[in-house]
Amino acid sequence: MTQLEYARKGVITEKMRTAAAAEGVEPEFIRAGIAEGTIIICHNNVHTNGIPLAVGKGLRTKVNANIGSSADDTDIEKELEKARVAVANGADAIMDLSTGGPVDEIRRAVIAHTSACIGTVPLYQAALDAVRRQKKAIVEMTVEEMFQGILKHAEDGVDFITVHCGVTRATVERMRREGRIMDVVSRGGAFTIEWMAHNNQENPLFEHFDRLLEIAKAYDITLSLGDGFRPGCLADATDRAQIHELILLGELTQRAQEFGVQVMIEGPGHMAINQIEANILLQKRLCHGAPFYVLGPLVTDIAPGYDHITSAIGGTIAAAAGADFLCYVTPSEHLRLPTVEDVKEGVIACRIAAHAADIVKGVKGAREKDDKMAACRKKLDWEGQFALAIDPEKARRLRAESGVADHGACTMCGEFCAYKVMDDATEKEKKQAAV
Q1: Going by DSSP bridges, is the β-strand pair 53-56/292-295 parallel, antiparallel, or unpaired?
Q2: Nearest to 56, CA basis, from 40, 71, 79, 80
Q3: Torsions phi, psi for 162 (to 5 deg)
Q4: How far from chain centre, in Å, is Cα 223?
Q5: Contacts 24+ apart (CB under 8 A), 378-383
């Protein structure tokens, strides 16, 4: 049985206990959330070295890091290093989005070398197999080949898969009629639309959704229902195509949960700040409270090189409003394949966003960390501050590089440090009171 089926029967599984211990909540809290579809446990039954990851309502906001090769950069060791650095800096999950080089080997190596939750987009696999092995165009993929790609990832132990089931002919028509500046920016969405147009057929993942459910159920894979019409710029946000796809995803969520398959929903994208909260509330309402996995949102389009910051701003607002899972964005977004250092910066920025939101959500233990940091700062306890920092290595390096003075404060204020001044004033008051 799947975790959802166990939960609905009132059974607390070992995976639920493991997840509860990691979250600092009771196992019954996890079971009840899974039963109602507001919490999921991402863990493929054959991912033997993986740790079950709970995502959803009342839990710590999780962070995903995308890695993966491209046709221009196929170094498997580099991708493994990215995965290692991402996990070392606090990423809860890794999505391998490889589209170049030995993609099977990269995916299997990432799974073997980390206990993190692993996600993929199997349509990329099917497209590459069609081009490389079958020597045909992407649009010539057969429905069978698409599902074989999904099955291959399931057998390898992937914990969640992005599937663009809401990209339908009706949704495409709505996009065409309303018009967009950037049309479709999702690779999976674009592949699907091109395939539908060439073959004059409906999206196989929508039309044969029951077959997809059978595979997911057999391995207890979480379906991450992808946002093929996510906005790629502010001007395209919250339009008819995006909302129509979301309505379809809500219907598919219901079907999947009734079948015993766990689901989360993917969301935008690029979006102005004043639309973010409404989008989160809409998703939660239409998709029956299923966990929401968002890319950003990026709150402005004019910051290439700094989109880890634009994403962190939007991610904080989204998670505070109820999003459960944030996909990082690196400084390289829109510019190049990210480097190892870009991956680290992206993870750190995303973790800041997630933690800031968890304080608002009242997640257990979130605010306490900030209070501990404040106490360490008051005492000029530098080791304590480094231990609590999201990036201890950078904090320690910056202080060391400043040429730290003997007075113990930082070089911003030096001997005029407010903490030291206040300590001196307090000490004087005590002495005067004792006289």
Answers
A1: unpaired
A2: 40
A3: -85, 125
A4: 14
A5: 378/419, 379/419, 380/408, 380/409, 380/417, 380/419, 380/420
Give pLDDT tens digits for 106-155: 999 999 999 999 999 999 988 888 888 778 899 999 999 999 999 999 99
The rounded distance, in Å, linking the Cα atoms of 42 and 2 is 11
Name residue, tokens 């709505």. Answer: 174
Neighbours of 362 (CB within 10 A): 9
Q: How many CB atoms lie within 10 A of CB 49?
A: 11
Q: What is the pLDDT of residues 272-298, one digit of tens each?
A: 999 999 999 999 999 999 999 999 999
Alpha helices in 322-417 (DSSP H): 340-361, 366-378, 382-388, 392-401
Say how far apart CA 31 and CA 43 lie, in whole Å: 15
Structure confidence at residue 416 (pLDDT): 80
Single out the residue of 272, 182, 258, 175 nearest to residue 217, CA to CA.
Answer: 258
Residue 7: both structure tokens together: 């939960």
- Distance from C-alpha of 16 to C-alpha of 220, rounded to nearest angstrom: 14
| β strands within 97-221, DSSP E | 117-120, 160-163
Q: Check if the beta carbon of residue 101 is closer than 8 Å to that of residue 75.
A: yes
Q: What is the DSSP string of 295-348?
A: E--B--SS-TT-HHHHHHHHHHHHHHHT--EEE---TTTTTS---HHHHHHHHH
CA distance linking residue 371 with residue 30, whole number of Å: 27
Please calculate the CA angle 194-129-252 and round it to the nearest 5 degrees.
55
Q: What's the CA gap between 67 and 357, in Å, rounded? A: 24
End-to-end CA distance of the chain: 75
Domains contained in the chain, CATH given:
40-364 (3.20.20.540), 402-435 (no CATH)
How buried is 176 (Cβ within 10 angstroms: 0-12 exposed, 13-18 middle, 19+ buried)?
Answer: exposed
